[in-house]
Amino acid sequence: MDQLSKIKKYHSKHARFIDNEFPPIPSTLGAKIQSLTEIHDAPVIWKRPHDISNNPKFIIDGISADDIEPGTLIKDDWFVFAIESLVERDYLTEDWIKKDQSFSDKSYTGAFVFNFFKNGEMKQVIIDDYLPTINGKLIGVFSKTENEFWGALMEKAYAKMNGSYSCLVESSAIKIFTEICGFFDLRIDTESHISKDSLGRASSKGLNANKLALIIDQGVLMNTGPQPENDNSEEKSITDFNFSVLKYDRPDGDILGDGILFTCTNPMKPEFSEMESESINYDIDASFELDFDDLVKHFKHLTLIFDTGVWRPVSKYFRLEDAKPQKFETPLSYKNRSELNDDQYMILEKRSRSHLLCSVTSENINVSFGLYSYNEDGTLTCYYSFEPRTNTCTRYLEVAKGDYVFMIFNENGEEVSETDGVKYSVYEEQVLESIRRRSRLQKKKVSELRGKTTNFIHSVFDRQDMVNIELK
Questions:
Q1: Distances from the Cα of 272 to the Cαs of 146, 235, 247, 292, in angstroms?
Q2: For residues 290 and 224, is the Cβ–Cβ distance under 8 A?
Q3: How far apart are CA 269 and CA 65, in angstroms?
Q4: What integer is the mean pLDDT of 251-272?
Q5: Domain with 427 in it: what CATH number?
Q6: Boundary residue ending a domain (158, 181, 204)
Q7: In terms of pTM, does the model score above 0.85?
Q8: Residue range 184-198: average pLDDT?
Q9: Which domain does 74 fall in, by range?
Q10: Rounded distance, CA 328 to CA 133, Å?
Q11: 88 & 152 share domain
Q12: Residue 409: predicted pLDDT
């Protein structure tokens, strides 16, 4: 019997569940939130929804992006923004948050359950429904409809998974996005993906405004950072903060994308030095607009958050020792398949044509990877390989049916070690699900998109440094 079943068996409206792992006491708030409560004359009182409202409901008339508001004391603006963005894109639905939970006498035990993701693994989080209040008002997320509580309870569950309510102040937008829906993130270096013409403008061969707009059209959640190379100077720059880039505005008839303006949002509205020099001002939605050239001028890196409903990991866990690197320019030869041990290589067995997204990162060295085809005579032939990149090499590959070996190497084509800080991952696209998601987001019929499976990743992760050997 799992924990939730035990709770339902031993608790009822007469003996409601109290979560001893995350109890209604001051330490659950965390140090940062506790320090904020000290400025109030009234204490924090933990109350169940029945003590806050006469007729509490879990969800009223479905969930929408406009349901919830940030807390008055708990600075959870990024959490609320992430929830609103995911609901708006239909990634977060009633079914996902278990709409069958309620405060009705028949099923109510004082326990609620939510699913999140930690380190890529789905994690079920069970909480009691005690919520922190001051003067009878919630200090965290609250609903515009006073007797609706799914947002406040979801926030408590997320806080429990991360240790306290103070995590909501400390968490990055990228972390919140990935932990709520299990999306995975990949960072791209905008400079390495931009080809420029003689006038220094982004050309069509690399990343440009149209391709960035296509990323947004296909539901990828794009964030700016903060940028890893920032210094710790007292004067804050735009690069010291994260901005979500989830929308854009294109003038009518702008086919080339020269007039596209990208909407950069940070619900905390941080101030930075470029606001005055470049006349940047927030609108009512905590947003401002930048054209493509200004966006990539300020942000040398962009983090793309992909939907795990479309991109599935080839394996749940990846260890460095699973992929023994070899020099990428030299084909490898083995007498038989048994010499390819699982603890030396990552072997991919594809029974149909596949779309793969592969990424290798290192904080210490220039790094890359190769994909080698395993032949019937026991030899390995280079199918794809890439010149090493600084910090990150991410590529989208179309792979024919067959058996492959995935290997990592450094800038000298030599084996990497644990001290090099190398991490890697391989994901496979679920093509039909990708079409369904794009159909919903673009409000088009699936039949209109069936023949259009070319993914934007084709364009974003260019192939100019790729060696491709056709298999016979």
A1: 36, 7, 22, 20
A2: no
A3: 20
A4: 92
A5: 2.60.120
A6: 181
A7: no
A8: 70
A9: 3-181
A10: 60
A11: yes
A12: 80
Residues 209 and 283 in one domain: yes
Residues 14 and 149 in one domain: yes
| Per-residue model confidence (pLDDT) at position 20 | 94
- What residues contact 20, with CB distance under 8 A and at least 6 apart? none
Give me 165's structure tokens: 């309510």
Instruction: Give the model's confidence band at 340: pLDDT under 50 very low, under 70 low, under 90 confident, else very high.
Output: very low
Two structure tokens written together for 148: 């609706």
Torsion of CA 144, 146, 148, 152, to 10 degrees: 80
- Same domain? For 333 and 399 the reply is yes
Shared domain for 65 and 169, answered yes or no, is yes
What is the token pair recorded at 249? Answer: 């505005």
